[in-house]
Amino acid sequence: MLSAFLPPHFAATKPVALIAGRGDYPLLTAAAIRRAGVPLRLVAMDDETSPDLIASFPAPERVTLNVGQVGKMLAALKNFGAGYALMAGQVKPKKLFHGLTPDLKAAQILFSLKRRNAETIFGAIAAEIEQLGVTLLDARAFLDDHLATAGSMTGGKFPIEQEYLDHGIHLAREVARLDIGQGCVVRKGTALAVEAFEGTDEMLRRAGQFKTDETLFVKTVKTQQDFRFDVPVFGLRTLQTMHEAKLGAAALEAGKVLVLDRPAVLRQAKAWDIALHGF
User: Which of 29-43, 150-164, 223-237 has the lowest mean pLDDT?
Assistant: First the structure.
């Protein structure tokens, strides 16, 4: 089986168009799709997508566009004859329409939305992609081996008592249910910080300003998470921020949080004595 996150009748002969933002996520995804032997095309974002990733594609199998050029992206999917598309890597929704000139299709999408946030903007783009007859894949597809798994991922006994772990999970899920964020930091039953618009790293830095022994970072997902364009990620950058903030443990929702370059993350976590646990 290529991936547990592919649709039941996935046709491995049809090209997958990788819509790539910034970071290592698109690089890992491209490598995994190539290993699977599935034809791959690239939709790269100017000043976002890794130049190394772009250079790994022959010119006829890639296109580079500005983030606001949704119409050009849809045209590229048609020209590629793509059966599937997969979004990977950070592209902040505000960058679609602020600081850049959106094309007509992007402007139409923005005008049609009553609420303008990550979920509505990317959801509207997903609907346009599906109207082409292109299936937008779960963004965890092909990266099964990089997901958080249940239990200790770094070995040994998890240093947080079950009572406090349960409290952290409950609080993180409530924060996610209210659509505030997808994480929190707790210590012995006390909430130190919750994730909001500022993002994970800033939340971790704020939590590091308090007493940090027996602190726990919890990362979860929304109740109605759309994994086609919104996969929570835990990677080396987040781990580095935890280390700098002197936070010693993290609990990640198994099968739902992507541990970017999992082998490297687990090695570094052990070196820094940061315990990682899946729930």
Answer: 223-237
Are 20 and 45 in contact by the 8 Å Cβ rule? The answer is yes
DSSP label of 241: H
DSSP category for residue 22:
B
Angstrom distance (rounded) from CA 267 to CA 264: 5
- Residue-wise over 48-85: b if at least 16 C-beta within 10 A, else e? bbbeebbebbeeeebbbbbbbbbbbbbebbeebebbbb
First to last CA, the chain: 25
φ, ψ of residue 80 in degrees (nearest 5): -75, -15
pLDDT per position as a tens digit, 23-63: 999 999 999 999 999 999 999 998 899 999 999 999 999 99
Question: 252 with 172: CB under 8 angstroms?
Answer: no
Contact partners, residue 25, CB within 8 Å, separation at least 6:
88, 89, 90, 233, 258, 260
Contact indicator for 212, 173 with CB cutoff of 8 Å: no
Domains in the chain with CATH codes: 16-136 (3.40.50.20), 147-278 (3.40.140.80)
- DSSP at 17: E
Comparing 98-112, 184-198, 211-225, 232-246, the range with the smallest average pLDDT is 98-112
How far apart CA 192 and CA 51 sit, in angstroms, is 39
Q: What is the chain's length?
A: 279
β-strand partners of 252: 219, 278
Tokens of 219: 């990362």
- Using alpha carbons only, how large is the chain's radius of gyration in Å? 19
- For 112, the 3-state DSSP assignment is helix
- From 277, 28, 1, select the one nearest 149 (Cα to Cα): 277
In the chain, DSSP finds a helix count (H) and a strand count (E) of 10, 13
